What does this fold into?
Amino acid sequence: MKSPNAGLRIAAVAAAFFMLAACSSTATDTGGSSSGAGTITPGSPEDLVANVGDRVFFDTDRSSLSDEARATLQRQAAWMQLYPNLTFTLEGHADERGTREYNLALGGRRANAAKDYLVSLGVNGGRINTVSYGKERPVCLDSNDNCWSQNRRAVTVVASGVGS
It folds into this structure.
């Protein structure tokens, strides 16, 4: 049985997404000619990245979600509800410090923390797979705090859904 707050939570997430969407500019046809350049297809991977955000970041040696991470995942949940035919992979990542084994486990905990939160917001867990890359796929290669903070992340990737 769902808690009485579950419906309110889903409604709040949807309202937040629609407010965000209303504030963002879109590349829709305004009556003039267009070349198609700069348009983003709704429900596409590019739409997720540009209009919602595809990644959340973590503190060192942590897999708990910050308020900022929760806000991003709330936008993702609302977006995922709009496109029920899509499936996703949540990739967990770590910075270069620590052993390969430790970072693979940490990346897994990060991916699962993001997935668990999305599921708590009403996204069907069967639509989300998780994988950990540990420290094997850094976005930044320098050995400093700024770089390490970019590598401590979970990234939501659209896995399938086109034509399904």
